[in-house]
Amino acid sequence: MSTPAVLLLVLLINCVVTSAVLGSLWRADVPGVRRWLASQALLAMAVGAVLAAPSSPVAVSVAVVPYVCGTLAILQGFRQFFGVRPVYRAELAAAALLVVAVVWCAWAGALSNLRVVFISVMAVYVRVAIGWLAYRRRPAHRPPFAYGFVWVVAIAGAIVQFARGAAFALGHGDDATLLHPTTLNVAFVALAVLSLSCLSMSVVMLAHDRIAERLERLATVDGLTGALMRGAFLEQAEQRCRRAARAGAPQSLVIVDLDNFKSINDRHGHAAGDQALVHFAAVMAEGIRSRDLFGRLGGEEFAVLCPDTSADEAARAIDCLRASLAGGGAGPTGGVVGFTFSAGVAERVAGEPLSQLMARADAALYAAKAAGRDRVSVAAPAQRADVAA
């Protein structure tokens, strides 16, 4: 068996193994996985046809259809993964014309190098499109490694395919020697196999990243309100407090508690209580700034960490939301039971740990409750000075 044949056999095995891995993710409902799985099966069929009869026009005709479809399916899978429209009619029409042209070249017995050029042009287009998607659509909140790997592999594969197409267009290669162990042929087959294998690995990496993102969200985001869970909020708040301390920037913490929430559950049922929590969280998410940190401490108690904000500024902002919610101006309630909230605000002083900042904000909250609820209380400057000392 020639070296190119061995390399293609390795690619065939890689397609089978990747199909098994992607098949295990079928029920995970990761966007793009099913198209990627189909692409691996189609590419395996194409490689098998080439290995069976590399010089036969029938084999070429049989191989080109699954190869073109499989290559397009990879691109469509990436588009689906990144939330982009996967199928374009112009691409399908171009792919159909490509198949007809390659089959005609195979049966005509002339211009055999031209079919390599056609295939290479398509491969370059697909890889550049994949690289562009990975570069432009990478989620900012996700680790960059997997997406950077996709970009590098796609662009490197495009370069290889461009070089192969150019070499055959200039007459430096011979398509009739696909499995012959010439130096140029072995080099191009090896690079193409490596490129496709790495691309197969990259789709598994992206699927894994999407599943990891879901698990992280389940572990850090409250499923009912969309706010950060207590542990995630405290962890991120600690990090922000350290950054604020180094920068010497003001930072305030607001602790919010829904008034008489137990009576909502008792009088209207827990479903009404859940609706109230969801509505409150939606109002808060819309009213606070994007750089503010919003979390659910437990039950009906929430917290907002406001960077670059004094206690008075934070109190004014939260009081506007309180008045808006109490007056029904926060938007249609959709049948949500009316409710109010109280809030305590404390500004962090130099060297103050988060636990003590939370204790002061909590004390201010209880002062607001004791004063009649539906109000905002700010920790007095004297309290902040005592902590600093």
Provide an overview of this structure.
This protein is α+β, with helices and mostly antiparallel strands and 389 residues long. It has 2 domains: 3-220; 230-388, Alpha-Beta Plaits, CATH 3.30.70. Helices cover 67% and strands 8% of the residues. It has 13 helices and 5 strands. It has helices at 3-24, 33-52, 57-81, 89-108, 112-136, 145-169, 183-220, 230-247, 261-268, 270-287, 311-326, 354-370, 381-388, and strands spanning 251-258, 293-298, 301-307, 341-347, 376-378. The chain has a 5-stranded mixed β-sheet with strand order 2-3-1-4-5, with helices on both faces. α3 runs parallel beside α5 (112-136) and α4 packs antiparallel against α5. The longest helix is centred in the middle third of the chain and has 38 residues, at 183-220. It starts with a helix and ends with a helix.
Give the tags:
alpha+beta; Alpha-Beta Plaits; 5-stranded mixed β-sheet; 5 strands
User: Which percent range fits the helix content?
Assistant: 55-70%
Write down the Rg: 30 Å
Biggest pleated-sheet summary: 5 strands, mixed
Number of DSSP strand runs:
5
Helix-strand pattern: HHHHHHHHEHHEEHEHEH
Overall average pLDDT: 88
Task: Count up the domains.
Answer: 2
Strand order across the largest sheet = 2-3-1-4-5
| Structural shape | elongated
By helix and strand content, what is the structural category? alpha+beta
GO molecular function, one term: diguanylate cyclase activity
EC number: 2.7.7.65
Transmembrane segments: 6-26, 33-52, 58-78, 90-110, 116-135, 147-166, 186-207
InterPro entries: Diguanylate_Cyclase (IPR050469), GGDEF_dom (IPR000160), Nucleotide_cyclase (IPR029787), Rev_trsase/Diguanyl_cyclase (IPR043128)
